[in-house]
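[agent] plan:
  1. take the single chain provided in the ticket
  2. run structure prediction with default settings
  3. attach C-alpha cells to the ticket
  4. add a short note for the reviewer (M.T.)
[agent] executing step 1
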Amino acid sequence: MRKLGIIAGSGPVPLKLAEACTATGRPLYVIGIEGEARTDIEAYDHGWSRLGAIGNALELLKKAECEDVCIIGPVKRPDFSKLKLDWTGTKLLPRVLNAARKGDDALLSFFVRWMEEQGFAVVGAEDVLGDLVAPEGAIGAISPGETALKDIELGKQVVHALDNLDVGQGAIACDGLVLAVEAAEGTDEMLRRTGELPTTVRGTPEKRRGVLVKLPKPSQDRRVDLPMMGTKTVELAAASGLAGIAIEAGGAIVFDRSEVARLADEMGMFVYAFSKTTVGQPE
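[agent] step 2 finished; step 3 output follows
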C-alpha cells in the first residue's frame, strides 16, 4: 500500500483517518499543525509543523517517504501579517495571498496543486473512509415529506448559486424561505443563530419545520473540505426546531452513523442523503 501523509488540522477527522489506515494496514505518517491538531496524533508516527513552515512540512513528508497526502481537519484562517514563515513559505507568500483573496476554496486548491507539484498524489478523506461516506436514502427511520423535499431543493439551489462567491457549503430553508446561509462562522453557529429566529419563520422542537442542507460546492476540489456531520449536528439542528438534515449521497461523511440514526429518530427528525441531480429537477 502507498504510504499516506496526513496533514492534520483540528477536530476528530484526522484521527479517524489514521485509525482507518491502521485497520487496513496502510502505512501512514501524520503532520500535526501546531495549535490546531489534537495531541492524540502522537499515538502514530508523526511530526509537528507550524502553519507558516511549509518547507518544514514538505521535508517531513519526504523524509517519511510518503507517496499520497491528505489535507484534513479545519484550520483557522491566519493573520498573514503575523504568520512566521520559513524560507519556502516566504517564497510562496505572494501566491498564497493571491489565492486567499479569492476565498478558502481557492486557497485550499492552491495547496493541493502545490503538493502535486512536489510529487505527491493528493487524495480525499473519502478514499480512505469509504464506509463513512453517506449512502443514498434516509439514515434512520424517518424520511422527508413533500414540503421538506422542496426545502432541500431550495437549499441545494442556494449553495450552488453562492459557489462563485466561495461562501459556504450549507443553507437552511423552511417552507420556501431561506433562513440562513453558512459563511465563516461554520455550520454549528449557523444552526445556533437559526434557533434565535422568531418561531413564526422556523420550526420548534414541538412542531418541526425546515431543513439544514449541506453539500459540496460545484467548483470545489472534493479531495479537501468535504462536508461532514455527526451527532452534534443532529443535536444542534434539533434544538433549532428543524425537521431534518439533508446531505449529498457520496458527497458527505457521516460519523457514528448508527448513533446519528438513533438520535434523529429519538428527536423525530430525518437525516437524508439525496442523489446528486441537476439543481431544479425534482428528486
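[agent] step 4 note for reviewer: The two ends are 39 Å apart (CA to CA).
[agent] ticket updated
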